[in-house]
Amino acid sequence: MAEEQRNRGFWLETALIFAAWSVFGLISSNQYYTQAELLGRPESWAKVLPSALFEMFLWALATVAIFSLARRFPLERGRMLQSVAVHLAGASVLSLARIVVIVEVSRRVEWLDHHPFEIQFLRAFHQHVLNCLLLLGLAHAVIYYRRYRERERAAERLAASLTEARLQALKMQLQPHFLFNTLNAISALIPAEAKPARRMVARLGDLLRITLEHEETQEVTLREELAFLQPYLEIEQARLEDRLTVVMEIAPETMEARVPHLILQPLVENAIRHGIAPRIRPGRVEISATGDDRFLHLEVRDDGPGLHGHEQGRARKGVGLANIRSRLEHLYDGEHRFELANRPDGGVVVSIALPFRRAHHGPATEERSAR
Question: What CATH class is the domain 214-370?
Answer without folding.
Answer: alpha beta
